[in-house]
Amino acid sequence: MKCLEILYEDANSIILNKPAGLAVQGGKGVKCSLDQQLKEYGAQLIHRLDKDTSGVLLAAKGREAAAHYSSLITGKKTIKQYIAVCAANAAVKESRPEQNRGIINDDLLIRGAAKKSLTMYKVIKTSTLQQADLEYSVLELELGTGRMHQIRRHLAMNGNPILGDDKYGDFSLNKKLRKTGFRHLFLHASRLVIKELNLDITAPLPEYFNLFV
Questions:
Q1: ∠ CA(89), CA(92), CA(98), 5° rounding?
Q2: 8 Å CB contact between 16 and 149
Q3: Which site among 54, 64, 101, 145 is 20 to 30 Å from 157 CA-CA?
Q4: Out of 35, 50, 133, 165, which one is annotated catalytic?
Q5: What is the pTM of this model?
Q6: Whole-number Å distance between alpha carbons of 74 and 16
Q7: Do 162 and 44 form a contact (C-beta atoms < 8 A)?
Q8: For residue 1, is pLDDT > 70?
């Protein structure tokens, strides 16, 4: 597949490190999408990442494998971990995540209905980016539920928006960051564990995370 890093492959599955900026589905204005490439490869996506989110993505080869992996990916024996860089300064509601680890369980509105949502987090690092006069935190997050844009929404709702998030984030801060050369959404799907298959796959962080981690 075109310039895509394959993290793992066997007869039934292929696990990729999706780059930021690649849409997972085709649509209006989308010239190249991951599902198109996978179709040519004889595989289909089992879960999805936002276009601007990078990291681990699972696809299955064939209908039978797809049905099996689809049942596993939503189960309690599957772990999805992410790394995010979020704002942690006086410009937002909270100065930083209040504890080194914790749970965000705010309900999220999905198609007009409030849905239970659960995100666990651990603070890896808190520091200052001098050139942008920005205090930030690097978080490791794990999904307890799989709502649309869950991590992005949960962090924004709690006053710690992900850097570069143009949908739920701090727009004035993002504009300031772009002027200093930062143009990415700092959210990366770092690890996928499927215990029933003895799979534990990690994806290295993109280079643009290096200044923060």
A1: 70
A2: no
A3: 54
A4: 50
A5: 0.91
A6: 18
A7: no
A8: no
Q: Distance between CA atoms of 32 and 119, rounded to whole angstroms?
A: 31
Q: How far apart are CA 3 and CA 148, in angstroms?
A: 27
50 is catalytic: yes
- Answer whether 16's CB lies under 8 Å from 5's CB: yes
- Please give, one letter per residue, the 3-state secondary structure of 34-94: HHHHHHHHCEEECCCCCCCCEEEEEEEECHHHHHHHHHHHCCCCEEEEEEEEEECCCCCCC
| pLDDT digit string, tens, across residues 22-71 | 888 766 655 677 888 888 888 999 999 999 999 999 999 999 999 999 99
**pLDDT tens profile 119-166:** 999 999 999 988 778 899 999 999 999 899 999 999 999 889 999 999
DSSP state of 209: G
Torsion sign across C-alpha atoms 129, 131, 170, 20? negative
Tokens of 173: 């801060």
- Three-class SS state of 207: helix
Beta strands in the chain (DSSP E): 5-9, 13-18, 43-45, 54-61, 78-87, 101-104, 108-110, 113-115, 119-129, 134-143, 187-194, 199-202
Q: Tell me the C-alpha distance between 53 and 160, whole Å.
A: 17
Structural domains of the chain, with CATH: 5-74 (3.30.70.580), 78-188 (3.30.2350.10)
Side-chain-side CA neighbours of 28 within 13 Å: the count stands at 0
Place of tokens 């960051």: 177
